[in-house]
Each structure stands twice: as structure tokens, then as C-alpha cells.
Amino acid sequence: MKLLLDTCAALWWWDGSSRLSAAAEAALEEQSNEVALHQVTFLEIAIKHSRGKLGIPKAPQALVAEALEEYELAYHRLGDRDIVRLATLPLHHRDPFDRLLIAHALEHSLTVVTSDSKFAEYGVSVLW
């Protein structure tokens, strides 16, 4: 399975938080699954950290770099196809970061690891 982490799921997984569902944790730990972090998630972490809205133990670039290596994550970047797809999405969800993840997941047939029920309104495969 090809999994894409949303920001909360990523932070909870890396922190060992009990807020991560058992099903999500099992899928993330399953060696046969490919787990990806998107550049948009890095952007969201950096912005929230700079505004003092995110208590993380280190600078965003260090946190993400360590997570990419430790968890052997694929790193996905925003592409033109994602932007074109974003422009066609209805406004079920107002969060621009989540909308970009939704567009990317739809464009690349990924399952999003998220607790956000609005993702499913777009027909995105969701794991929680």
C-alpha cells in the first residue's frame, strides 16, 4: 500500500503519541507499505512552528530530515498535476495544506493517513 502522511498523523507517529490510531500505526510499521511525506506537510510544520503554534523539539528542517531517514520515508514534492487537480476540487475542505494533500493523493492513487473525515468527501482512500 502507498501511504501519504497528513501533518497530524506524521507528528503523532514520530512522537509515539497515543492519538495515532492502532490501524494507522500498524500500517505505518508494515514493511511492505511505502510511506511518504509531502513537501506541503514540511511547509505546514515550518509555518506553524514559526508562528509558535506547534511545539516541536527541534527546528522543522531537522525534524523532517531525521524523520525521512529514521522512518525511510519517500519525499513527495508539489507538481503541476497536483496544482491542476487542486483547481478542480470542490470546497468541502478549506485548509489549503489538506487540499493540496488531497489533490496529490488523488493524482497519484495514494491512501492518506489522517483522522480528518473531510478527506473522504473527496473520494480519497483514507486510513485511520
Explained architecture:
By secondary structure, this protein is of the alpha/beta class. Helices cover 48% and strands 14% of the residues. The protein is built from six helices and five strands. The protein has helices at residues 7-15, 22-29, 39-50, 60-70, 80-88, 96-108, and strands at 2-5, 34-38, 74-76, 111-113, 125-127. A five-stranded parallel β-sheet has the order 3-2-1-4-5. α5 (80-88) crosses α6. The radius of gyration is 14 Å and the shape is globular.
Strand adjacency order, main sheet: 3-2-1-4-5
Helical residue percent?
Answer: 40-55%
Which term fits the overall shape? globular
N→C terminal distance: 14 Å
Structure annotation, total helices: 6
Strand content: 5-15%
Residue-averaged pLDDT: 97
Task: List the defining traits of the structure above.
6 helices; 5 strands; alpha/beta; 128 residues
What is this structure, in a nutshell?
With 128 residues, the chain is α/β, with parallel strands linked by helices.
